[in-house]
Amino acid sequence: MEPEVHIIDKYFQEVKRCFTMTNIQLKGKKEIDLLAISPTINQYYHIESRISTTFKLRLKATYTKDGRCHKNGLDYFQKEKFEHPTVRKKIRELIGDIDYHKVLVVWDTQDNFAEMPTIAEQQYGIEIMGLRGMIHEFTHKNITSGSRDDILRVLELVSHIQKEEKAFLTRVNKLGERQRGS
């Protein structure tokens, strides 16, 4: 499992309190990144991720000169990842014919990130989530504390580095203020 899918998986387990299935292989080289079920609130999720520091989600996919899709638009994700007949069939087999949330996790968007979630939900029925926000939640709410999970342990260590750097900068700033005041 890719590290980003692992983080998303752990986010839905630890924060959303879901049971999850990852990397579900389908016919025709299709795959579902993650299915999640929250039994306490009876919510079902189909989650896809497209994480890259160079990838920026757009409302509409762009194409090469010879017509190949760059796979960077919400229209592409709706058609190929969420609404493709092979995907829909497998989801029906696994959770039945019930309503579920479609979630796309990205690092960044080409178009305005603040407006993108509203447009994505209204036009495509897809919720946009940012991996940065998930990582922030893990590192600032002590969700990772004492974890035996490799990825969460790394996030915990990064969180400690950030706290130590912040404390160091605070001490440096106070020292500078004292020196300027004397």
The top level CATH class name of the largest domain? Alpha Beta
**Count of distinct strands:** 5
Radius of gyration: 20 Å
Summarize the biggest pleated sheet: 5 strands, mixed
Average pLDDT reading: 88
State the domain count: 2
Which of globular, elongated, flat, extended, rod-shaped describes the shape? Answer: globular
Share of helix, binned = 40-55%
- Which structural class is indicated by helix and strand composition? alpha/beta
How do the strands line up in the largest sheet?
1-2-3-4-5
What is the distance, rounded to the nearest whole angstrom, between the alpha carbons of the first and last residues?
57 Å
Low-confidence stretches: none
Which CATH architecture of the largest domain would you pick? 3-Layer(aba) Sandwich
Order of helices and strands: HEEEHHEHEHH
Task: Explain how this protein is built.
The protein is of the alpha/beta class and 182 residues long. The protein folds into two domains: 3-143, Trna Endonuclease, Chain: A, domain 1 (3-Layer(aba) Sandwich); 147-182. 46% of the residues lie in helices and 19% in strands. It has helices at residues 3-14, 74-82, 85-95, 116-124, 131-140, 150-181, and strands at residues 19-25, 31-38, 43-50, 101-106, 126-130. The protein has a five-stranded mixed β-sheet with strand order 1-2-3-4-5, sandwiched between helices. Helix 1 (3-14) crosses helix 5 (131-140). The chain is globular, with a radius of gyration of 20 Å. It starts with a helix and ends with a helix.
